[in-house]
Amino acid sequence: MIALDWMREGTAFFDAVSDCDLDRPSALPGWTRRHVVAHVAYNARALVRLLHWARTGEETPMYASREARDREIEEGAKDPALRELYATARDELTEAIRVTESWDALVVTAQGRTVPASEIPWMRTREVWIHAVDLGAGATFEQFPDALVDALIDDVIELRRRRDQSPALIVAPADRERRWRTGGPEPRTLTGSAVELAALLTGRASGPDLGRWL
Ligand code: ZN
User: Fold this and answer.
1) Helix, strand or coil for residue 180?
2) What pTM was computed for the model?
3) Average pLDDT of the chain to the nearest whole number
4) Residue ranges per domain, the chain?
5) Residue 188 Cα distances to 25, 89, 99, 146, 208, angstroms
């Protein structure tokens, strides 16, 4: 699983970028950097629950509810021991991945998608890399590996196809041979570098309103 390598690399990236003043605002509206770190910590715990589900068959969803998810982020952001909370959750996820063998077992994500457990390292990959940028502490999509940038575009396009989401898109990065298409009438062609388009498609750059990703 290449995502396992990206997950490890992205975790190190997030750790390095989050070694900053956490009391400052993040790049996400309404969130300080502390909220971002709390969210990334609780996402690790949520994925530990999915891995438990995959290993045991006991249905342990990522979050009890959207409200519960938001509440724990607010509380975590205020926790004086936030860095320790994050590091513990991160290490618990590493351990849960180490002991998991049932990667074909099906689990249900917070978005309600049924996926094999093998998707979990990719779910974490997205979180650590993109939220490192969201910290607003200097990290950019330019620092992502090229193949990861492409995989992020794949992810967005696949979700849009599945939802039949409009507008239809043709993603045509100037620095790639490859073209991505979602299907649907009157497609809008997006041009720019692959990095710029990945940032736009994941809602991390200003530009045309393309609707939600996750
Ligand atoms: Zn997230």
Assistant:
1) strand
2) 0.96
3) 96
4) 2-139, 146-201
5) 34, 41, 45, 24, 10
Length of the chain: 214
Please tell me the distance between residue 133's alpha carbon and the centre of ligand 1 in angstroms: 12
Find the 123 Cα to ligand 1 centroid distance in Å: 9
Instruction: Kindly report, residue by residue over 90-140, the tens digit of the pLDDT.
Output: 999 999 999 999 999 999 999 899 999 999 999 999 999 999 999 999 999
Which amino acid, 1? Answer: M
Neighbours of ion ligand 1 (CB under 5 A): 127
| 127 CA distance to ligand 1 middle (Å) | 5
- Residue 27 exposed, middle or buried by CB count within 10 Å (0-12, 13-18, 19+): middle
Closest by CA position to 142, among listed 211, 206, 213, 204: 204
| CA terminus-to-terminus distance, the chain | 22
Element of type H or E holding 172: strand 169-173
Domain 2-139, CATH among 2.60.120.280, 1.20.120.450, 2.120.10.90, 3.40.30.10:
1.20.120.450
Query: How far apart are the CA of 126 and the centre of ligand 1, in A?
Result: 8
What separation in Å is there between the alpha carbon of 69 and the centre of ligand 1?
Answer: 11
What is the distance between the alpha carbons of residues 14 and 48, in angstroms, rounded to a whole number?
A: 18
**CA 39–ligand 1 middle distance (angstroms):** 7
